[in-house]
Design a protein that fits this description.
The complex is a heterodimer. Chain A is about 0% helix and about 55% strand. By secondary structure, chain A is mostly beta strands. The interface between A and B is medium-sized, with 23 and 23 residues.
């Protein structure tokens, strides 16, 4: 049963600290998406990659957020420095890349910045 | 720009009764429409999607959705609700040229025994 995995599942940190979240997409999927979920904003797209290249990161605060795919099996989302307003659940999703394709979501990383 | 509206924050239904969760959309091209469900402390699970063809789409767990182009709607339905269907439901859309989903605000479904 192929699944998207995310680590850590929960992260509590202090303001100013660096946070790195990791995602392993489903093997064979060539698109990876990062979403953020908050009560106020709902689900927002932060960035997405196709064949490891970033296609859209317009939803991401560029001054503190960065997203990369070091290889086809790993996507990372980094926040440096973190702020309390970054507290949210961050979801990674992967897909096969066509427009009609279904995205499959990981379990999420719950980030709390104190 | 693409957008999705889920007009109900919460839907309450008795077990065994039919349920409907509403969704309307706005896109500039042909829409690709999706429903996802989220259980507490879990990621989103895919339920069903409309790409083309029959307006009635059948998905997981007995759910179905009806695409109505003239009303720009894609309502989620189930003939007989279960208590275990209680969860947060998200409608989402993809527009021409986009790969990423735009989600609605979510509707919490509460099924009472």
């Amino acid at each position: 049963d192929a699944r998207v995995t995310q680590t850590p599942r929960d992260k509590v940190t202090e303001m100013g600290q660096e946070v790195t979240m990791r995602c392993q997409p489903i093997l064979g999927h060539n698109t990876v998406f990062w979403y953020r979920q908050t009560m106020m904003q709902g689900l927002e797209l932060l960035a997405y990659f196709r064949n490891r290249a970033p296609l859209d990161d317009s939803g991401m605060p560029k001054d503190r957020f960065s997203a990369e795919m070091p290889d086809a099996t790993l996507a990372t989302l980094k926040i440096q420095p973190s702020e309390p307003r970054d507290s949210a659940v961050y979801f990674c999703a992967s897909g096969l890349g066509s427009r009609e394709d279904t995205q499959y979501f990981g379990p999420g990383t719950r980030l709390t910045v104190l | 720009a693409q957008s999705v509206a889920q007009p109900e924050d919460q839907v309450n239904v008795a077990e065994g009764n039919p349920l409907t969760v509403k969704c309307t959309y706005s896109v500039s091209g042909n829409p690709y429409l999706f429903w996802y469900v989220q259980y507490p402390n879990r990621g989103l699970q895919f339920l069903l999607k409309y790409i083309t063809g029959d307006n009635l789409v059948k998905g997981s767990y007995g759910f179905e959705a009806e695409f109505n182009k003239s009303q720009t709607s894609f309502h989620l339905k189930k003939p007989s609700a279960l208590v275990s269907d209680s969860a947060l439901y998200f409608c989402a859309v993809k527009d021409t040229g986009r790969r990423a989903l735009t989600f609605g605000s979510g509707t919490r479904l509460q099924v009472q025994p």
